[in-house]
Request: fold
Amino acid sequence: MSTKTSAPPVKWSQRKDVVYLSIDVQDAEQPQVKLDSDDKHGKVSFKGKAKSHATGPELHEYSLDLELNGPIDPKQSKISVSGRQVLLCLKKTQEGHWPRLLAQSGKTPANITVDWDRWVDEDEEDEVKGKEPDLAGMQDFSNFDTSQFDVTGDNEDSDDEDLPGLES
Reply:
């Protein structure tokens, strides 16, 4: 196992009242997430051992310390750990969009990117309100309906037809 500590890949997006952080680690073993805040900046710390999407099954040690662009409410924020990622929903103490994730201006570190799957423009935010996932039940799969998925492979599909031979 590698003893070098790396910064994990992080994706972020925001709404006027929350910031979403997705720490991209597979099967994190006992991840430690610490949220803190003062009047000016929120702070996120992450430590854990996890698999890398890029290098396969070997465990790597990850560490992350972020000073955010604005204050957060750690008690109202949520943390969800899944097999693919650690997802944070950080509650802002003051509504409004931040110009960037980090307090420090300049070039964003290479491991931090925008999460375009969750991104919503400021002027479109009211339209998607209510369509966001409920993070409170993220790990509760007891009501997950698998009957809509055909796992038998008996369905006919045009992709299953034999392809014609190559012409020479």
Summary: Residues 136-152 have pLDDT under 50 and may be disordered. The chain has one domain: 5-130. The beta strands are 5-6, 10-14, 18-23, 26-37, 42-52, 56-67, 72-81, 86-92, 112-114.
